[in-house]
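Why does residue order matter? Because the sequence determines the fold. Keep that principle in mind as you read this record.
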Amino acid sequence: MIAPTHPSASLLERFCRYVQIDTQSNPNSQTVPTTAKQKDLGRLLVQELQALGAIDAELDDKGYVYATIPASPGCEAEPVIMLCAHMDTSPDASGTGVRPLVHPNYQGQDLPLPDDPSIVVSPGTDPALLAQLGHTLITASGTTLLGADNKAGVAEIMTVAERLLRGVPGLRHGKVRILFTPDEEVGRGADHVDLQKLGADFGYTLDGEERGTLEDETWNADGATVVFDGVSAHPGFAKGRLVNAVKAAAGFVASLPADQSPEATEGRQGFVHPVSATGTAERAEVKLILRDFTLEGLAAQHQLLQRLARQAAEALGAQMHYHPAEQYRNMKQVLDQHPQVVERALAAMRRCGLQPERRSIRGGTDGARFTLMGLPCPNLFAGEHAFHSKKEWVSLEDMELAVQVALEVLRVPA
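Structure:
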């Protein structure tokens, strides 16, 4: 196990500095990146990487940060490994004016957040806190998210870079490529990455939750748009003429099975989820997302939605049009062909004194997209908890462990 250097002081300072930079992405923007402010952090990271001595650190015009850590002497023929985290934060809660608060020696108590005491980080609603006794926790102040998703990963990778470039006694490694992406939270983090320029053989995202976890499976994910065409008529003379598309859409949404919704599912259970509904009496549209860990389950969800939509339309005499759209696929189908990539990470965790746990992600990562693009890339824990909310928190000790695991992943066996 690699001994921590300077008990994480630089890691804590770095993380608290990064979260104060607003990098919230915008799902409604068509620019690349979706918000220019993401480049504020990108420019800072390039400056810091250059100051540390990283080779060819750059921020490209799409908002991606690339950098290289050269191989140790004699290790130039080793595989090139990428470490990746995303710079943007979720649109689900404000990222403006983040005030990180440090809570040393946590003992299981509730943590009311001072800028809005009604927001309480509590083991009563988040039992994972009970595994953090004695740790240093970092939260926001109550009016914003914290941004540990994924600035914990950014700070961890920057700390790995610092330690490698300054030298870790006894650690020999191949060439390391660093990648920081924009727009992951809005599903576009891999859209403009240049894998040829990146030149990695495989990689790891540091964007996971509990210490010791590795995620090598994601959803199969699709979208669907259901359009209802009605017949418009003056409401004062509508008898026998009006066919209300809004009512057809409402009937369809009401018919969706409650036990297949996000709020009623967990683990490996899939769901269908209406994300928006718009329209008029003449034409209404419902957008949905579908998630399942198997392609068979995903196909069954499409069949269900078409049947329910058809029934809702026929009940009122409307017309229905169903438009499916593929989003992404389960990365496990690719990672199973590269077992050495996952095993390398599991072995690294064991060397750090952890009992690794393989998990499935109820969501997507840049790594899942990279994997399906031909760059195997499972997801390592970064210590993030309560993502996308004002109750978000992270443990400094877990972040330090993530740094140690990443260093061990890079280690060339003696």
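The chain has two domains: 6-218+330-410, 220-328.
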